[in-house]
Amino acid sequence: MKEQIEKIMAELSELKCQTEKEVEEARVRFLGKKGEITALFDEFRSVAPDMKREFGQRLNVLKKEAQARIEALKAAAQTSSTAAQSEDVTMPGDPLDLGSRHPVSIARQEIINIFRKFGYDVAEGPEIEDDYHVFEALNFPPNHPARDMQDTFFVSAGHPNPLLLRTHTSSVQVRTMEKMTPPIRVICPGRVFRNEAISARAHCIFHQVEGLYIDENVTFADLKQAILLFAREMFGADTQIRMRPSYFPFTEPSAEVDVSCNICHGKGCNICKGTGWLEILGCGMVDPNVLEASGIDSKKYSGFAFGMGVERIAMLKWQVNDLRHYFENDLRFLREFSTCVEV
Ligand code: DAH
Questions:
Q1: How far apart are CA 155 and CA 148, in angstroms?
Q2: What are the pLDDT digits (tens) for 59-97?
Q3: pTM of the predicted model, to two decimals?
Q4: Whose CA is nearest to atom 7 of ligand 1?
Q5: Which domain holds residue 55?
Q6: Going by CA atoms, what residue is nearest to atom 3 of ligand 1?
């Protein structure tokens, strides 16, 4: 009898049932009127009186164990069957959220595509640059305020040619002139870094596209025409440009370019602050000192250069009034560009 009790105990602990029907069959097998445990209780009557106490206890423990096990299996079978019943296989699946291009990426690619059509190649350079390529070779005097800690993130200061995060992509002009011989026609898209407080109009990280064209007899008229064609492709065929005299150490003469406001078409609105014009880029004829510093004969060759902020172009094109939207990754903002197609 002892062995039988142990055998049934072992079977109970191994017992597995998937459905309520199987649980009921197990209950009948162990605890039913003709069940194995019930049979042991019948046998118990003929146990010798001095053994009754021990076997009585063992049998009670076995019965309780069997009842608890059957209850637990029943509860498990019930929950799995209700879960199976409540599964609605006709329900549509979870939607897959497709990402979309970031507006800065769309604008950057659009600028590249336009200049590619004009025959420009794309050149890239390092984001961690040295003072020589960002400032010195571009004719910045040694004490120019842009070298100051206020504007530039230095990686290694105190060195004669310190490493720094480039503050503009004009450094790629220098690297290109060092490597190539004219004719040179490149645009240089890339990330730039400035030690600026973040606001609606400024950020410490942003993107620029630089342009450089060097050949024999390149004139300011060529520059003007290239910028006009770009502006019309970017902002619409009726776009006008105007050039205002300006100063950059690396160009002479230098200009800032405005486009006619694409919102009010020159009448004056709050985007153009009533002027009818929006500033888009800086440009000029490459200073002969800059050509010579990179080994290009300034008597034979001349060239023009320009540089624009990608975020700024994107703000003007899509009337975004705060630069910070581009960096906050708010899906409500980003999704507005999900159907944008580049030219
Ligand atoms: N590097 C200038 C800036 O970051 C932009 C610029 C102006 C680039 C005039 C040029 C240029 O190539 O000719 O503000």
A1: 13
A2: 888 889 888 888 988 888 887 777 667 778 888 888 887
A3: 0.73
A4: 282
A5: 2-84
A6: 168
